[in-house]
Amino acid sequence: MPLPHKPHRLCIIGDSQLGSLQTAMQTGLTAAPDGVSVEFWGATGPDFRQIHWGDGAIRASGAAKVTAQKINAAGRDHIAPEDFDTVIFFGARLRVAEFFGPYLDWAHTHGNLPSKAVLYTSAKEFVWETRAYRMAHTLAQSGCDVIYVPGPFYTADILDQTVKNRFFHAYPGARFGTAAQRDVLWSTLEAVSADLNISLIRQPEDTVTQGVLTDASFACEHAVENGDVGHKSAAFAARWMQEVWPHFQQKAKAA
Amino acid sequence: MTHPYENLGPEAYWKSGVAEPGAHGLSGLWTPKFEIKPKHKIVTAGSCFAQHIGRALAERGYNWLDCEPAPPFLLGQKGRDAGYGVFSFRTGNIYTPAMLLQWLELAYGLRENPTEVWEKECRFFDPLRPAIEPNGFESEAEVMTSRDITLGALRRAVEEADVFVFTLGLTEKWQNVETGVEYAICPGTVAGQFDKTRHRFVNANTRMTQSCLSDAMRLLRRKNPKLKVLLTVSPVPLTATASGKHVLTATQYSKSVLRAAAGMTADDMKHVDYFPSYEIITHPIFRGMFFAPNMRSVEPEGVATVMKHFFADQTRVFGGAKAAPTLQKVVIPTGEADVKCEEELLNAFAA
After folding, report:
1. Which CATH class is domain A8-254?
2. What ipTM does the predicted assembly reach?
3. Contacts of residue B145 in chain A, CB cutoff 8 Å?
4. Which of A154-163, B160-169, B329-338 has the lowest mean pLDDT?
5. B332/A23 touch (CB, cutoff 8 Å), yes or no
6. For residues B93 and B169, is the Cβ–Cβ distance under 8 A?
7. Do B330 and A118 lie within an 8 Å CB cutoff?
8. Which pLDDT band, with edges at 50, 70 and 90, does B332 fall under?
9. For residue A42, which of A14, B77, B113, B129 is within the disulfide window of CB 3.0 to 4.6 Å?
10. pLDDT band, residue A250 (cuts 50/70/90)
């Protein structure tokens, strides 16, 4: 008698961006492939600093521990490499807008992006500044399959981004970013990640507007009232996961 | 009966100007033609020694203009390793006046942009600045794209600057026989292949050097009529010579030519001045104290002494400079994405 297939164990670790994905999965906008068991784990953005790598696992303490145990169906306060076959970091403090904004602005000022070698070094510096990314790398080094879905671009038409200290005030040239330039920047981030055994999945191009913003149709509920440019709708999470699932299936098959 | 030496100041006499004050008491080495204020936009280019001047000015709060700043996240040494933040644009060292003229003519479309690219182990190098990308560029197209960025930065620098500091470094150079393009270094050293039928060694004499330098000064002035130029000569000796002479005598020849050309140009042109950093480092009165044991590299104390004279003579002639205003740093709030994040997350999982 053939043994039943063991389910592929997937953990999705994230910050508050995780909310849109949970809703998307609950409402059937997206679903994990057959044979995959999904758990969520993480904490809100400010509490993410209470998540750290220690004793061979990603651990939460303080308020982050309370949140992590609340959103994880199994009540886990830590995630060890052997606990899961694949870990997806979702949002998880890696705000790619902070890479794209200055680079697209630089490209606008100077007429083009710098060389691939320069971009690679910069991209490595950028991802490495994010502690969660370093934890993802440690996890990947332990043999776990790691996918990173970074935090999305800010949502368009919610706030006037040209006002002092806002995005386009700091990076006025970024709004002129082209699809080709974004492709180069994403490719660089993907290459850096691949060299660190992390699969980074880019934000779908059809969700992008105004050079480096997310289309307003993907805003979260009450985004205008709350001035919330960071969070997105469940539809947005579902759209991004359309890019993630095939990649995940490929890796699961290879494993 | 009076004579011209009768009423000269102490600086005109060796005894009172040099022997009595000694190395550390020298003053009035330079009588600047124009004031350089901290608010002035200062561009630096040239040989290695120009890097020191740019950095020293920036450290003193002077407005050193970086027209091709390091791209984001490429800070500090990583940026400098890739040729950013070293000069006001990413040309790398511009050792000769001819090379300066060549860069300016390229920037303003006054000569054809050379398409020659050097290759080494499937990486591509710009013959005009082969060391700028330590591991080479990915493709020939990337070499040209990157050069275009630098030419744009050079144009901005020329047009926006108040003062252009150029340090003359060498007279020995290598050219392409067919195109006349001057290379930054000899082909085959960093990359490329040396071919004696295609590559020519030239050791520029005073006439050639001054001609190129004057042409470059005129072009700068034409593109920016308010631009002042400060020339210096690098005190750093040649690493090697291809002249067939001993490297010591070859060095002395090169520096003499450069010093003469700089002096002649400064004497001829109102908007051009010469600052004697070369003399401060190399003159026998300092007994070589500013050189490292290899008698080539200049120690930080030498740079500090050069800059001390620079500021002292500016103050002597024009009075004390006011401190430059501190640039306001733009602070980008990163917390915007965290707005209401607790609700976002917990509401989703409360269902």
Report:
1. alpha beta
2. 0.86
3. 112
4. B329-338
5. no
6. yes
7. no
8. very low
9. A14
10. confident
